Each structure stands twice: as C-alpha cells, then as structure tokens.
Amino acid sequence: MENRGILFDKDGTCIRFDTLWQAGLQACFETLSMLAPHHSAEIKKILAIQEQRFLQKHLLDEVLYQELYQELAQFEELVEQGISSRWLEQFFYDYLRKNLKKIEPIGDLKQLFLELKRKNYKIGLATSDTLPATMLIMEYLGLTEMFDFIATGDRYLPKPDADMLQAFCQSCQLKATEVIMVGDSLVDVFMGTCHGKAGIGVLTGNCQSTDFEKFEVAYFRDIHEIPYQELWGNTKKKKIYYV
User: Fold this and answer.
1) PANTHER family annotated for this entry (predicted)?
2) Domains of the chain by residue range
C-alpha cells in the first residue's frame, strides 16, 4: 500500500468558528471603545470591515491582526495605551481561552481521524491561525494526538504556498504526490492541487459549490462525506466529484 497523507484545514473544515470570532470582535470593540470613547463609532466601523474580511476569506491570522492594528493606529489614545498587533492577538487568544465551550466541531472528528489512522493515513493540520490558539482548540477538543503534524500561519508561509505541505511531507516521510489537502477555501484546494496530489473542497465554511465548480474542484458537503479511499484512486484519473 502506498503512503497516504491528508492535510486538513481547521476553521470552516474541522470546526465552526464564525460565531465565536464575531462575538470576540464585539468584546474587542467594547474594550477599545472604553480606551478611546470619542472614537467609538470609527472603531466600530473598522471592526465591521474586518468582520467581513474574515467571513469572506475565513482567515484568522497574523495578517489580520496587523491590518487591524494599522487601522486602529490612527487613534493616538489607543497607541499610547499599548494597543498593537500583538495586543490584539493576545486579546483574541484570551477571549478564546475563556469561551472554549463555544467551539463547535463539525461532526465526530475523533472517530473520523481514528478511522483514517487505522487505514494508515498520516493526518496533518494546516491552518492560518496561530500556534497557541490552534493548540488550545485542539487540546480542548481532545484531538492533539490525532495529528501527525500541525502547521500554523505564524510558523509557515501562508496557503496556497507549498511551505506547509512540504513540511508535512518531510515530517511524515511522504512525497508531495501522496498528499491530499482538504479545506473550505480556494487557497486550501489550490495548495493541494498545485503542490500535492489533489485539493478537495468542503461546503462547511467559506466557499459555495459554485466557487469550487468554477475551478473544477472536487467538493463534498463536509469532511465526513468524503469517500477517502475511493477518492484516492480516482484522483489519478482526474475524475471530479460533485456532491
């Protein structure tokens, strides 16, 4: 049996994160408004724009924190009180830590991963999120030991660059042609398509079916609907699955 590796995206693929992120933005707004009350309306507008960026791209990463800080830096009161991209990252990490019960896994992830591991698949996680937040979530869900490899946006180049996939291959002694990437966004499937064996989309997050169909990308309702062994053989024939 050939070696097989599957890289999973996190947000929108393994867990539903939208509601927690939106609630975190509201908490951030309340805190920043207290620090700069005269700019409350402007701060609310900035955070609303960042909320739309997250909902559209499903990225919670260092770039988002940096962009948010660049917008907030126009308010001297905030800068003088120590607001920075690192402050924002820590704020959302602390919010996450206090609200772990709001994290919603998509189906029985442990059962799925155990089944894949019994079939000798190597399992990796490739996310734009930071390592501390990712480990906090995986530990809370009891999934840390399920992964043979974890790559985060603060340690590797962002998807669809090959960096995360290549590191997965090196760590698990795989060839790039032995790795499938599964995710809810086009950057996920492009990474798998361009640098691995294939990229597979799911409809539990960012993209609609039409987004995947536009690029002739195989997609399924969620990661539990994917017929991994059957799909593995058919990707060699470039057969496209639409569900």
Assistant:
1) PHOSPHOGLYCOLATE PHOSPHATASE
2) 2-15+104-218, 17-99
